[in-house]
Structures are given as C-alpha cells and as structure tokens.
Target: Peptide/nickel transport system substrate-binding protein
Amino acid sequence: MNALHRLLGAVLVASSLSLPAVAHADSTVTGPGGTTSGTYMDYMKTVYDRAGAPEITSLPLTEFDSEYKLNPMGAKSWSQSADGLTWTFKLQDGLVWSDGEPLTAEDYVFALQRAAKEGYDFNWYWSFAGGIKGWSDVTDKHADPSTLGIKAVDATTIEVTTDAPKSYFPGVASLWYPVPKHVVDKIGDDYALSVDTLVASGPFMVKSWEKSNNTMTLVKNPKYNGPWPAQIETLVLDTQIGPPEVGFPAFMAGEADWTTLNAGQVPVVQQQFPDGIRKNAVFALYYLAFDPEKAPFDNIHVRKAFQAAINRDELTSTVLKDTAVPAKSILAPSYPGYQQSIADKTVFDAKLAKEELAKAGYPDGKGFPPIEIWYREQGGYNAAIAAPMLQYLQAQFKDILGVDMGIKSMPTKDWTAALKARSNGLFLAPYEYDYLDPSNFYDLFKSGGRHHYAFPEYDKLVDAGDAGADWDKRLADYAKAEQVLTDNAALVPLVHPVTIAAVSDKLKGEGVTPNSKGFTPLDRLSGYLYTHVTKE
Model:
C-alpha cells in the first residue's frame, strides 16, 4: 500500500473496533523508519545525515535499557583510575564482524580517531560531554589523531583519558560504536553506502536498502555473539510510515506493528483499544533562550517578567494536551537526577510578571520595543508542539505583559547559525538528551556551551557535579547550579515533550512493555526495543 492509499485509509479508522492483525509472518516486525534523506549507514561518520538505523547494526560499548539503566555491551566491564581521569574498558570475548573478522579495541579507537580527523558532525559531543583529552587539538588545530586520549592497549582493552574527571563517561560511551577498520582501509568511507559492502557488529545486518526513501530490511546477524541477541528474524524499518498521518492508517491496515500517534489519533486508540497505547517520555526540553547582552533582555527584570508570565499547566492541559508536560526544571520528571524540589519553586505569577516589567521601565508593556522569537522547523513530535505553543505564548505575553511578540520560523540550519551568531535576542530552543545523566543537560548552559552565557558560579557547580562520584552530592551541586540560572532568568523552561504510540497486541516482550515509571521508550532506545521483542 503506497502513502496515498494509507492516507485514504485514515477514513476507515473510526469504524475499526479491534486491534489490527498484522499481515506479516511472525518472524517479521515492521516499524517506522527515520529520515528519508540520510546518506551513510555509519553513526560514527555522521549522526545528522545518517541513513537507516546504524545504532541497531552496530555494537556500542554500553547501552541503556528501558529502565534507563546502563548495561555492558561491547565492553564487559570498565573501571576508573584513582585520579578520575582515565577509564579502562574491557571488551567482551570473541566478538566478530558479520564478515567473520575479529572485532577488536582498534575498531573502537579507529572510529573516534577518524571522526575527530574528518569533521564529524557530532564532534561537540566527544569534546564537551566526553571531554576526551586532545579532542579540540585534533578537530580545531589539526593535530594528529594518534594524540587523542584514546588507545587500544591490546585487542580487548581500551584506555580513555579525559581532560577532567567525568564520572558519567560510561554513559557517554553508549554512543561509541566501532568502525570496521579492515573494510575502510580497503574501500574507504564508501563502504557505508552499499548493502554489498556494509558489515555489522550488532545483532542485525542490512539485507536491503531502498535508496529512494531509505526504507531498510534488516535480518538477524548470524555471526553476532554479544549481549542482547535479536529474537526476531526480520525487521523492516519503513520511512514511509514515519509520520503518524501515514503510519496510523498503515497500522490499522495491518501493515505496521506499531506507530506514533498525533493528538487527533490518540482519543481513537484510547477508546477502541486502550491496551495498545504506549507513552514515552522523550526526555527533551523546550525553553525560552534569552541573549542577556541584547536589549531589551539585557535587563534582568524583563527576563524575570517573561519567566513569571507562563502558565505551563494550562498550556499542557489544553493546547498541548497529550503531547507535552510542564517543564518546571531543566530535567524532565523520571529523568535520572530530576529533583521535585527544583520544580516546586517554578510558579506562574501574573502579578509578579507585571511588577517585574514595571521595574524594567515598561509598565503594562508601554514603550516595550518590538521583539520576535525565532524557532526552527522540525518534523516528528516537534511539529505538533512548537507552533501552537508559540501562539499560546504570544497571546499570554500580550494579555499579561502588554507585549507584542512576533514569531519567525526558520530552517534548522539557519536557526542554528543565527543562535551561534547571536542574530536575535530571543529563541525557542529545543534539546533532546544524548545520554542519560544530568550532566547532559547542565553542561549545555556552561560558558562556551550552546549559548553565550557566562556564570562562573554555575560553571563551578556543574563541574563539581560532573566530576563527583557521590550521587547525592552531584545532585546537590546541580540543584545549586540550576538556581543560578533561575536567579539570573537566563532561560525559561517551558515543556517536556511526550510521545504516544499504538502497539499491536501481537508484539510481546520487554521492548514493548511499559517500564516501572509507565514509559515505553520504543525506538528512542531502538537497540533495546528490537532485541527485546517477539511476535506472535
């Protein structure tokens, strides 16, 4: 069934009274694919232009499960030196590539050396989150990649040296995948462009790749002998059913085993087959980002006025119902390190907002200069959140503050360039986690980070939290750091997106079972989902 037929099939949804019976053989699972425009099937070559799901065909050193617990994968163990600067990873015994060649520590080291040398579009992650010693020297000053703080001690031992103690580094390593050096040495990066030359280190391997839209068929890797082996024989990742407007009709027609839902589809599923509903905390944050050096946001009272003028509870119970929850902290509820005590301090106070704007010299908004908020165009769950939320805020600021705010939509590339160049004083900024640790979010707002902030006390507290080994002490440092941002009204957390999906009753296993917090990560943790699912 093509995309047009799927869309036409949406009119039949309301008359369906039971969970769909998927028409594939029991050993085949079909799910939504990712981008249709990606090029390389290699996560360590490109993250933002990757094709398919190389994170399923590759074996990371570590990986998070549905309870957000870190598990050994390519590495069977790891240890930290007494000074906190060196991590030693020991690989699982007997790992092999799908072509039968041994998978060794050199393949992991080569992956990062190649990334640093060739302008990897995820370089910031290894510099900022990973803090690998010498990373910026290679990426910015063209030092030899061999000078990086990573080395293969022997075939099964990797040693990593960081610039500062990073207690959470094993979590960062969940995005460290090997690259087949023996293949790249022969044919170069083009190995990741063709099914004929791709080799896999993970539980699945690519059988077919439809280049026109990046739909892929994956099969169980017969050579794989690591943790989390595949329990299904075939996995089809169909990019055509990624958008819920197409995916849901396909699901109802029995052509997909699960699909994301948009807000209009949720009530239908809740009414007809509530047991098929799955909710996922995306662990992302939407926030107002001010440039505290640009007028009128160089006035702290202006920033505090905006900070107090947002009714998050009303926003998420009406305009963004079923798509987001209030963000009263940088971290989302259930995210590791979330602290209710921080969220409790965040309140909507229209009276205070008016008072702060008056202190800034703009009583009831009189004399306030024209402002415009810039946001980036995105698909997926972002498409259902950004525009309606901004329209709500636009009305809220006019009603409470007497301020007129324009709204400008921009392509992601232009938005990112504008943020970096400080071309505007107000942005709607989204950020989704890369690894499950508080540092992933708090590091974002350090000096030299995503924004042009400079709060030395904040940097000091976050650095202490990042380096600490005691969990409670780390959380205390992060709480103090977030208070610094709040006191300076540097940014305003708005909402944490959530996604809702429908899952066929033919799918069984931990991969589609809600965790202890009631969430089902699904493809956000695709390595776990597709290795912990069976089909009846």
Observations:
- The radius of gyration is 24 Å.
- The domain at 284-498 is CATH 3.10.105.10 (Dipeptide-binding Protein; domain 3).
- The chain has two domains: 25-240+506-535, 284-498.
